[in-house]
């Protein structure tokens, strides 16, 4: 049993937690909810000894504890799976799984490689993942890396596992296996803290919800006794209204067409059309090749075969620079590795794709840059102490907004969004949907890759579905249901 | 916001405090350090290593390294000397030498980007090649009869408004490079390539071109340093510039620029170069043996880096 009370924390005088309490009982799954920047991750970093608290008390099984480092917390069985992945990309899966806890022959330091690989296979198959333990971790999808991270926590005999948005990168099937494992472990008396912006999930798996708002404790609710609306109201402090705002769509001519797009070994024969003012959803399981198709259109991958047309004219994109010249923008999937320069400020990140616009003859125009950045911080409601704050110190959801701002700045005619609302809170999601709608209404053609089916159904005019590198179906607005899309995505029978 | 800035400022000012402390210690131990003649002497020596270190700053900011600067200096110095002694116009000589430096640097950049060779390895190879070419070109002998070109001699030995010309050259180079790094799109790109190359590429930055440019700039600056050195000594030595790359890297690191790229500033490099210069000069004045000088220099670098580590932890 963990009890945290009166927790306060400030960074450089910026208060991010004030007198917050949290309780985790044995064998319970406790959700921690709140908007982006509410302080959820910070609270859990304090619990795990990464940050030191400015005030307050942490009690584990009735005894007050002081954590000076993550090691102290680990000794008491507290393990955190962080929002941003912590895998070493060049190590193998097995090496990552046993990092710091390698199995050796006695104290010789000689590794039992075989045995670790066997254990790795066992652990991962429990989570429904069959991969060669010698695979280089960096070659796996974000979703698979996430599962390895979870396996690692389970392997360390943790008593309290904190999962900071574990499912943001997982597909429905992966989530299902994860939930099954979590419930099994719960039955063995292990407690979980579960941070997520996905309401459905929280109601499906959690016992209690604690809600934070602006670094303050709002309240705690037992799941069966509450509902979506109450939680949302507690989180945002106001009524939110419709989840997916209405769009006044005026779909125009074909803007982008791809024919028989193929990259050997990744995907084959992808053909589709995207019209002006249209939001075309791309659904599919993790690893079905959606991101790779987007990267190819954006010139980041070399195509083996196929053609790309914009406004009916064949174009040749050899690099992102070419793609941008043709008015394509690309909000990438992984903000940490592809979207942001983490050491850069918010300002420098937003202007990175807009250097031409923010300069004349190569010299930066400060006022121009500042006003553009200020506009997007305001429009996207990026929660920050100012444009000079480093991207690294932003909450996950706000980082995502910075990546979106960067591309809105380029005023694209075609915008590719790869999981645009991953890790974004419910209020901010709606803001992003609103922005997508505005863009579409002004004639921008939007290609939206998303693993969240409610989002695809709520936002897209049309959906194409990919499975294992092939296009398996196209669904119109009228026929869009989770079942139909999942059937195409998993290769089940194609009944429409 | 002011908080982020002030914290950053404190960490940036560290090297400056170090320099001031060093100057105080040296001038207490030997007051003649503070004579104008000696200060000019220090600055004149520093100008050459600082100019090279400025280039190294650009390279290190992109996450690279350039070990070939010393050899580039020797080769371009030898070429300049032989052009002069063959009677070429000094201004044309200066122009040609600078262009050759630029090309030698650009070759590094092309090998690194197009050949996908790690910067350390690529420039280790060209360091040897350029040095070898210098020896071939000079036949291993110094070139010393440069003729009597007043305008070329000015470059290393003259005074401008009472200041030594090399120092003025260094200051001008510093201002121009500072401006490029802080105020231009190119500067922003340099930081972005070092901070996150993939994100930079996906933001429409031609990362190869940026890298080739920084190595070219470094080559250019190495040849500028070569001209100052050749003018000052009135000769070109085939062994000139040996281990200059290490002093340059040390200056950059002392100034607080991260070897991982993406973080740092050129003012720090100037301060770093001054620290090394004052240290060298001070130890000479105090009479520390040249053997011990090496030990002390190494220890100072280590202390600076360890303190930097602490700040970021
Ligand atoms: N190391 C840091 N330095 C400065 N500010 C920080 C730091 N870490 C977090 N913050 C600030 O603290 C606030 C809370 O951040 P936190 O990451 O806890 O939010 P969160 O509730 O997890 O949000 P999200 O749902 O977006 O992940 C944010 O405003 C963030 O900018
Ligand atoms: Mg968070």
Automatic annotation (TrEMBL), chain A:
Chief location category: membrane
A Pfam entry, by short name: ABC_tran
Localization terms from the record: Cell inner membrane; Cell membrane
ABC transporter domain segment(s): 2-239, 251-493
Membrane topology, as annotated: Peripheral membrane protein
GO cellular component term of the entry, any: plasma membrane
CDD domains, alphabetized: ABC_Carb_Monos_I, ABC_Carb_Monos_II
Classification via PANTHER family: CARBOHYDRATE TRANSPORT ATP-BINDING PROTEIN MG119-RELATED (PTHR43790), D-ALLOSE IMPORT ATP-BINDING PROTEIN ALSA-RELATED (PTHR43790:SF3)
Name of protein: Ribose ABC transporter ATP-binding protein
Provenance organism: Ureibacillus chungkukjangi
Taxonomic classification: Bacteria, Bacillati, Bacillota, Bacilli, Bacillales
From TrEMBL, chain B:
Membrane-spanning intervals of the chain: 12-30, 67-84, 91-111, 117-138, 159-181, 212-230, 251-279
Gene Ontology molecular functions: transmembrane transporter activity
Coiled-coil boundaries: none
Topology versus the membrane: Multi-pass membrane protein
Subcellular localization, as worded in the UniProt entry: Cell membrane
Keywords annotated in UniProt: Cell membrane, Membrane, Transmembrane, Transmembrane helix
GO cellular component, one term: plasma membrane
InterPro entries: ABC_transp_permease (IPR001851)
Superkingdom of the source species: Bacteria
Protein name: Ribose ABC transporter membrane protein
Species of the source: Ureibacillus chungkukjangi
